[in-house]
Design brief:
11 helices, elongated, two-stranded antiparallel ribbon, mainly alpha, 293 residues
Amino acid sequence: CMSDSSTLCAETLDPTLKYSNKVKEFMLEQSQHLNDLNILRRIFMYLFQKFSKNQDSSISSQANNLIINIFGNINDVYEIALKLYDSIDENISSVNNIQTQLQQNENESSTLIGQQFWELAEGNEFDVYLNFALNVTNYEKVSSSLKSVITDIYVRKMLRKTSIGLVKISKYLLPKLLLGSVYHILYVFETLDYLSKITLDDEDKAFLSDSFDTLKPIKSKLKDIGFLSSKKRPIETSFRIFHSYQFQSQSTNNNNLFTANSNNLNIALNSSMGINSGTISTNDRSTLGNSTI
């Protein structure tokens, strides 16, 4: 491959460095995934629930069912995603501390993460992603339920009062943003496959390969509903589309506030509706890194 003095082609990197780079990439993606889930849960789902409540602050079974039809088991997905992130992060911190004590260069060894995947895969905990995928890809049910929620006069009024454009985001973008987790589990599968092929540790390879095999039925069922690769992920399935604008959820006198930059909101909506398109650079990975949820 072609390279200059300031860059190194991936092919020239030793397996340990390749592994380390992939772990760093994965943790960035997992962090963004958690951020996306948090916004879906703590802004959209929260507001739908809040504005669908009766005068006695209870939510009717009908309204609750509509919200479940839209968001499915998103809380379960968040819990597993957070569990995986924390487990790997803890392992990385532990290895870094050991390297510091031994005054060892971090490039001399990489943090092995196969065991962290296997601890979840062994108990079929990733199955929550399949359940979520089957729910959010039932497009007719999601669309119908979403329409019922946001066409409610009071809910629509309160969404508009909360933020200009929030009704449009809910109508046009939310169904696509919900698909982000479906593409993410494909990325997890691809990460396991990649790491299992380059790891130099036999035990780590076994953990990664076993995890890969355990997730195969999930991948097969996702293929049946048209999801083949995370590389085909549309830009509008992540909140990275809202580059340089901030979602903010603040509790002030029990009022939940949603703020957004209207110019970027219009760009996002236009992109979602096919009016405009774009690509996300690697610099946009931390788009919502400063968000307050």
